[in-house]
Amino acid sequence: MKQTRLMMGMPITVEIVNCKVKLFHFQEIFNYFQYIDDTFSTYKENSEISKINRGLLTKSQYSRDMQTILDLAERTRQDTQGYFDIHRGDKIDPSGIVKGWAIYQAALSLKQKGFTDYYVDAGGDIQVSGLNSHHQPWIVGIRNPFNREEIVKVVSLKGKGIATSGTYIRGAHIYNPQDKTDNLAEVISFTVIGPNVYEADRFATAAFAMGKKGIEFIEKLSGFEGYMIDKKSIATMTSKFSEYVVKSVEESEKKDLKSIQ
What we know:
Layout: E1 2-7, E2 10-16, H1 23-40, H2 48-53, H3 64-79, E3 87-88, E4 91-92, H4 95-112, E5 118-122, E6 125-129, E7 138-144, E8 147-157, E9 161-166, E10 187-194, H5 197-209, H6 214-219, E11 225-230, E12 235-237, H7 251-254, E13 258-260
Parallel strand pairs: 7-13
Antiparallel strand pairs: 1-2, 2-5, 3-4, 5-6, 6-9, 7-8, 9-10, 10-11, 11-12
């Protein structure tokens, strides 16, 4: 069973391969994403993050999830030599880490309920578990950022997360903390496969901010692979990314293809 809803300004899709799944299982996931949006959206005046940015809350008043996200953001800043930074002047914007973390938490909740075969997709960032309805690993298509109707690579995933960072859809929402004048025009999209979507998401954002040297950063990370497309439409991949690539997709599989931004 699969459901998609438009939330947080993007489509969120959950598919669970289990004959015992009920509608309330999906509702619980979507309620969770609504909570995430209500807590972390910088566009909502009454969200917790907006109140923090207006100085209405002290650190002792932060929710446990807010403290977790801020701690994870600081750890990511250190892990990426400062290329991941949620500070925007005197404000903080944790959106570069919240989505992947929320997807992963939603997926964990399904695991805790006993489900083994499922995927959770929010705006193209995906966590998969087990097998699809054809008892095969989940297959995910990476879109051409210059032509979103075209899939440039198809990868097969089992128990992994995948995330893409770029400016071709949302515009310039990522910046280089090392050089505020860098308009990040060299790289158009950066896809990362990791042990889970949270890890893939945070490092995809940082790698994109690094520009072309981001692919070298991902290459050195154990358990991660990356696929970068630059402004000249030239793709560069890490040394073992090809191990995930599906050489061809049968017609019967195309309807099960999940696309990533």
